[in-house]
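anyone seen this seq b4? input:
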Amino acid sequence: MSEIPAKATESEDPSDGAMNQAAEAAAAGDAMWQSSPPGSMYDYIKVASFSISPGGLVDQWSLRAEQLFGVPAARAVGMDPIAAFIDPDLRERGQRKMAEILDGREWTGVVPFRMPDKTDGGRGEEGLAEVYVMPTRTAEGDKAAVCIVVDVRTLRSIETDLAASQAIFGQSPFGFLLIDTDLRVRRANERFASIFGGTPDDHRGKGVHDYLPRGEAERVSATLRRVLETGQSITDMHVTGHVPGSEERRHWSVNLYRVHSGSGRPIGIAWLGTDITSRRAAAREAAAARRNLALLNEAGARIGNSLDLETTARELLDVVVPGFCDLATVDLYQGLLTGDETPPGLVDGSAELRRVAFASAVSGAPFAVSGEPVEVGAVHHFPFNSPCADALRTARPQAVPPEEGGLVQSTLAVPMVAHDTVVGLAQFARAKGSEPFGDRDRDLAVELAARAAVCIDNARLYRREHERALILQRSLLPPGDPEASGLDIACRYLPGNAATEVGGDWFDVIELPGHRTALVVGDVMGRGLRAAVAMGELRTAVRTLALLDLEPAEVLSALDEIARGLGTPGGVQQATRTARQPRDADLSEVYLATCVYAVYDSVTRRCTFANAGHLPPVLVEPGEPALMLDVPPGMPLGVGGEPFEEVEVELPEGALLALYTDGLVESRDHPLDEGLQAFVGALTDPSRPLEDVCDHVLNTLDTHHGEDDIALLMARVQGLPAESVGDWTLPREPRSVGRAREYARGQLLSWDLEPLVDTTELLVSELVTNALRYGEGEIRLRLLLDRTLVCEVWDSGLVQPRRRRARDTDEGGRGLQLVGLLSAAWGSRRTPRGKTVWFELPLPGGEAGLTDPAEALLSLF
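predicted toks r here
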């Protein structure tokens, strides 16, 4: 086909084979055009075809050519190909191109053309057509051609889009797969291949079972089928697996959506995967940090609520099991638990420990030491070379290797360090199946153990101070079975439990001259060692004031000044100055106390009460219900400025008197009035032994709450019999001295106390003589027999006798010295109408021996 005229006529033999082939191709193109559904690739590429007869004219013109060039076949057939689709303005350049094309060779080239304008009468824009000329021959051997035309600009646009798609697919930072309808990988990108190894082509034909564990692969396969069947997209599906050749667990977030062909037929599934392993790790770290913070907050709220060592250890385990570990124990040094003042533990970590707490969420089996299980309460020690001993020795946490075949897979031995001192060891363990301890867990375990250790050390210090305070408190109380003339005494003292501080409750029984007895019950307000010390000072002051034989109201007035002085820097020495402070002075540093002080006279069975803000005494007369005595309440000690009143009550024989502190009747469970009524109701049978009465009261009132100290003092009245009293009144004249000696001799002989006669006569003579010389008014002589013999000489003078040392040349002045030498005790006291001078002699057969009067007289000269 070396020469083709510019214009040619129709082929002389249309049935030529080559022409028929061209016609068939064109027809096929047209058929494809007609059968291709909208949206096929031919719509996008814009391909057209036509054929040229041996005469150089168009003899076939496809429908696509009509669409592309806007020239109908009726006009194009028989035309010069250049004239058929090239715009006249562009035809000159096209003819030159076509002249080169129609030379009988296969050729591909680009020719310009004018695209049809969709508007009437308009001119379309200029386009480029890529023409592919395929030479052929007719059956007769004549040259012809078949031409394929493609819109260049459309083709370039598609190539650009394909290049962009290829770049996006290949350069995507996400793993991308195209999975076919058989759930096999059709295509993979570089990112996916970089994670799982090989090239993208190496992954063709693989399935999810090649990448994921069986269970996970089954789940993902089911999801892929559902997406393929329903077309429902999946967003952020988490998938976990292992990279081939590695045990490292990886996590992906996968998005799935169904892909369709141009005809709308499902052709596969697009898989877009993002590696979220680091994000999951960061999330786990953040969650672990939140859990640890919550655990520390819980530890701060729950550990150390009690001041008991064992309870604090159990509180630690309540926090960590199961929130932090599966099993845990706490061992404390035995010396710490027994109150040893030396620092607990030995430097080699092998000192004895006691297991004080154990908790488990998986098993009841305790941790073993040297292969032997250790129960709670057992004393043991760790071998020198063990990790636990090393932890105690170095004060650093240690990992304990698990036993073969055991339940535990990871154990931390953490020393409990408080104020640079190791007080014990905590072991935290996780069972098989749990995540082993990491560095963050180790730090948390150290912090938890340290917090518990501080609380345990505080409990230890508190217990030490509490025990010291109890020792002090009990040392200031009277002996268990105090004795008193004319009274049967029983008492109870119950300190608060270990969780409460020591209080300031006290009671006392003080023997006074003349077979009288002072009964005291008091309570210092507040708690702790300072309250106990204040109680001790007040109790000592009461004893001192009682021995001065002051009236009850005077005793409380003096105690009030002392109590006010306790809160000042100068102590008791500031009592007088403090008492002069104004009524509205700040009482924050003043020790306030309540106290009831009673003096019982066994001869008259009369009892004088004075009260300083204390609860009223309770009296039970034989055959009568118990009642609270109407004693003026008064102000507490330490307030100052208010006088105290006295009330005198005659107690019938066999009556029961009860003094007590508020811990007996006051509780959080009921108001004070109910407690008082319950106490009064519990005193129903005063004839029972006093010890039984005390026990009955304590059991009835349920005093085991331990909220406060309890002091209970009960006394049954047993007045001195009339035959044990000798009482005479003597006129103020010299012969009364001899008469006093006769009365005394006769009374002692009637009491079968002949060994005391000489001594008693001599001392009675001295006291009556002094009453005549220095006293006033009538003289009264009284002898009292009980556990001792007491002699009293009364007169109306107010001047108290004063003992002095007589010189060798003095004729007198040795009377009181003689009384002091021969008697067991002597003294004087004021009375409402004067004074009383007395002496006391032990009864024959007692431990104290009698002094020979003759030897005593000789010793004075």
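The mean pLDDT is 80. The chain is about 35% helix and 25% strand. kinda curious what u guys think
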